């Protein structure tokens, strides 16, 4: 049983692309938030980001699709290029504990139950 929060911070113009990647992979629990540029210069420099408006695209993904999502995002969003975007993978169990992880799974089955997709672009 393995679930991860995948959080991507990128330019607003490119948030639609990340949402499209998640949609093609049939990731059903996704959230997009738009930043207003309130980060301090120190924070931007720490993460090596340009001072433009950003979007945070977050989803919950099972262990099998986490690697595929990261690979596809790296390829299509140029995550390796300086100041373009960055992606974090955080295990659900390390943040919320075992009970929350078990809540996301059906009893007795090791299958991701999914959820309703929240898509601000449609």
Structure commentary:
This protein is an alpha+beta fold and 122 residues long. It is built from five helices and four strands. The chain has helices spanning 12-24, 41-46, 63-77, 92-96, 98-104, and strands spanning 3-11, 30-34, 54-62, 85-91. The chain has a four-stranded antiparallel β-sheet. Helix 1 (12-24) packs across helix 3. The longest helix is centred in the middle third of the chain and has 15 residues, at 63-77. The protein is globular and about 40 Å long. The chain starts with a strand and ends in an 18-residue tail after the last helix. Mean pLDDT is 77; it is low at 115-122.
- What kind of assembly state do the chains in view correspond to? single chain
Distance between the termini: 32 Å
For the largest sheet, list the strands in their spatial order: 2-3-1-4
How many individual helices? Answer: 5
Strand share of the residues? Answer: 15-25%
Query: Could you tell me the number of beta strands?
Result: 4
Largest β-sheet summary: 4 strands, antiparallel
Average pLDDT taken over every residue: 77
The outline comes out as: globular
Low-confidence spans: pLDDT under 50, at least 5 residues?
A: 115-122
Please identify the structural class as seen in this structure: alpha+beta
Q: Whole-number radius of gyration?
A: 15 Å
Order of helices and strands: EHEHEHEHH
Helix content: 25-40%
């Amino acid at each position: 049983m393995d679930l991860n929060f995948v959080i991507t911070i990128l330019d607003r113009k490119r948030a639609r692309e990340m949402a499209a990647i998640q949609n093609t992979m049939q990731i059903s629990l996704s959230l997009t938030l738009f930043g207003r540029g309130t980060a301090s210069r120190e924070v931007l420099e720490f993460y090596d980001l340009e001072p433009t408006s950003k979007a945070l695209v977050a989803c919950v993904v099972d262990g099998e699709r986490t690697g595929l999502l990261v690979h596809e995002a790296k390829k299509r969003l140029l995550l390796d290029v300086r100041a373009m975007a960055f992606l974090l993978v955080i295990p659900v169990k390390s943040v919320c504990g075992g009970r929350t992880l078990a809540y996301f799974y059906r009893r007795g089955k090791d299958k991701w139950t999914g959820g309703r997709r929240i898509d601000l672009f449609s």
